[in-house]
Amino acid sequence: QVQLVESGGGLVQAGESLRLSCLISGSIFSFNRMGWYRQAPGKERELVGIMPRTGSRQYADSVKGRFTISRDNFKNTMYLQMDSLKPEDTAVYYCNGVREDGDGLLIDHWGKGTLVTVSS
Looking at residue 1, what is its pLDDT? Predict the structure, then answer.
């Protein structure tokens, strides 16, 4: 069973940077799409950005120009580089991967999340 494990969260001040990692227990190439989501206190989970297996990466308007998704294929790891952090970026950040199961159905896989807190 595939596992996604996030790390790198923590407490930072506004304007600082942080890099999150998502370690995948299998091959990153097995996923049709990977991405990052976040959930702030009292709010619904929202998309931060996605990275298709092929094609360009897409980001939410709220993070465009500040956040960057990348990956290391050899380490089976996806990253989220977060620059110019704002207090409103405070949330639990989740790694997500979508891939086909044995019947060809697309299945979502989630990590348990890592907390990012940005102080003003």
Answer: 80
